[in-house]
Design brief:
2 copies of one chain form a homodimer. Chain A is mostly helical. Chain A contains 11 helices and 2 strands, in the order H-H-H-H-E-E-H-H-H-H-H-H-H. Chain A has 2 domains: 81 residues, Winged helix-like DNA-binding domain superfamily/Winged helix DNA-binding domain (Arc Repressor Mutant, subunit A, Orthogonal Bundle), CATH 1.10.10.10; 139 residues, Up-down Bundle (Four Helix Bundle (Hemerythrin (Met), subunit A)). Helices cover 70% and strands 3% of the residues of chain A. The first copy, chain A, binds a DNA duplex through helix 4.
DNA sequence: GTTCAATTTTTGGTCAACCAATTTGTAGGA
DNA sequence: TCCTACAAATTGGTTGACCAAAAATTGAAC
């Protein structure tokens, strides 16, 4: 019963401040290029500690909304975006990611990574991918779990794709993927052997510079993994 | 001449600490689930202030590597990923995103968003997209810049796509897109009218539930915008 | 020998004071 | 009148101390 009251107060001070600053910007009181009030003034005005104000500014800086200049002030950098309803705060909730969304998005990114890797891979990239694949194979043949090695292979492909943004996004969702997969215990039985073969096919197409075939192979591979994890999930429920 | 010396010291304390923690994890001294040494201990061990340790932990928490439990400790959440060579530090450099990478990745995400939106859009989604489009049109017809309204339309499409992960990733790269586009002053002349027509086509296909046509329309639209910004860039260089 | 509760210790969260760099204001000289 | 040099005020950066909550420890009761 008392929990209801706590729920209200659950809005952390930082979120509260972010809301306030966003309000100032969207209401036009703060425009791009303007200087924010000093941290002290803000803290006093909002009735919170300066630490909270600093944390809030740090988060907004992360998203390119603000830019803080040492010993000078904090300025508004990002335009209008902040006016777009409550969207900004939503970014902070990537953890609630539905599993199916995660898999769908991962497939999208990885397929594209394989496609561009086939176009742009250098000799060095090929060596890196080969090494990652060998490390994966070694673990599998010894019957050891190889989730990390699996993902490392995929990330070297992203590396070969030569798209820093795409790679960054993959890195952002990777922890969530790992979390879900270890939960499902994908390690058991001979699943890994099939995965290994599929990895080899993907690498072959990338080496031979066949973008669409590489993309297709990656798509099929991820489809396999997804199907497999779904069967495991069903076993869980019986 | 003196700048060279500064360059060396440019490694901020936070980056240094991130490197140290990464070292601990990749060397196997810290495994997923383990508790990190307390902030105080780390600060003393590394010879820096506790604030820096907190900042570093906050950044790593942002990417799902660590998870801090209030009054309890900080644990390692992401598995093996951190063992993957210097990849983690690269995540933090999303701002150096090459413009071409950004555009390429945006196109990938938006195209997929349009495709799924055409499959899953509800009546409410249609209303939201229509409203966003109207707001855009109103600004354009008054000769006002409408970058924010433009992006809002795109984001409502992502919303209609019903993939929280995809939407989150789009939100992450949006500030960078805005930054680059306002820099190029895309606002002048009648470019917006053409954009408006393209938006209408995209919406039409989404409403009529034609996934592939919607995806193609979005792809063409973004290709147009990209080409246009390239011509502006060339004008800049003359 | 085991269990449970009280107490001590450790933890991350918060705050207020201090520091160095920057900016701003001002007075003096050309 | 304008410019320069210097000082005062303001800024974000950093530190150490304090707080409440969670863990770990201890010891008494059974």
């Amino acid at each position: 019963m008392l929990k209801n009251f706590q729920e209200i107060a659950v809005e952390t001070p930082v979120d509260k401040i972010i809301g306030q600053i966003r309000g100032l910007i969207s209401s036009g009181q703060l425009n791009p290029g303007d200087r924010l009030p000093s941290e002290r003034k803000l803290a006093e005005k909002l009735g919170v500690g300066r630490t909270h104000v600093r944390d809030a500014i740090a988060k907004l800086e992360f998203y390119g909304i603000l830019k803080t200049l040492p010993q000078s002030g904090t300025i508004v950098e990002g335009i209008g975006i902040t006016a777009l309803e409550g969207l900004i705060t939503d970014v902070l909730k990537l953890e609630k990611s539905e599993f199916v969304d995660l898999v769908e998005t991962r497939a999208l990114l990885e397929t594209q990574a394989a496609r561009t890797a086939a176009k742009r891979r250098t000799m060095e990239d090929i060596i890196n991918m080969k090494n990652a694949l060998d490390a994966y194979e070694a673990k599998v043949r010894n019957g050891l779990p190889a989730v990390a090695e699996d993902l490392l292979f995929h990330l070297t492909i992203a590396e070969a794709g030569r798209n820093t943004v795409l790679k960054s996004l993959m890195l952002i969702i990777t922890p969530d993927i790992v979390k879900n997969f270890t939960k499902l215990d994908v390690c058991k039985d001979g699943r890994f052997y099939r995965s290994l073969e599929e990895h080899k096919v993907i690498l072959k197409y990338i080496v031979n510079q066949k973008p669409e075939l590489a993309a297709k192979a990656m798509e099929d591979h991820l489809q396999d993994v997804t199907d497999y994890s779904k069967t495991l999930k069903m076993e869980d429920n019986h």
